[in-house]
Design goal:
7 helices, alpha/beta, 26% helix, Rossmann fold, 216 residues, seven-stranded mixed sheet, globular
Length: 216
Amino acid sequence: MISSKEQHEVGDEKPKNQINLNPISRLFESRQRSIEPYVKKGQVAADLGCNTGYYTFALAQGVGPEGRVYAVDLKEDYVRALEKRADELGYRNVEFHACSASDLSFIGDELVDFVLANGLLCNMAEDRPSAVKEIKRILKPTGKAYLSLGSPPPLGFVSRAEWERILEGFIVERRGGFLQKWAVVSKKDNGKKMSVNDVETTKRHRFATLRKKFGE
């Protein structure tokens, strides 16, 4: 279960990449703190490509008993192990599914407040467009999704050009720079318009840095 230290760790300054992809950095990172900016009590979250559940229970803690988390992974042994672990830890707000993210028919339209797709798309050799479509379908008009490529080419299946095409289908609210393939996005059909000057990036100074703090 999430430790008491993780539960009470707070910081005023948000890290540039809230969901850390670096396995070494993960050793020193609080999972609970990483997802705090994205989830609130009573919300619905989806952990797509949950793998061994690195963030699953942090999300479950974030949404609380009154919320719900959908944990989805193609590998059934991962999902069954997580299901057993959840039972041992007393989490009753997580629903586990061993399936592809390209078919999330068990999740209703516009039901999810936060979608975590951390390293998902780069590991899908097929059905990637369907997975993106499903993310858009299940995301609430006010919801957000965290998309990242943990393994860009040649290790992953998503090229830089395809990554940009994927992001064009969303409103990009925050994103990494040239070498950092992650973005916080929302639905385009929520009536919100955003110019390039509104997008917060983490590009190096030699690139054009476009930054705006949200919530000010």
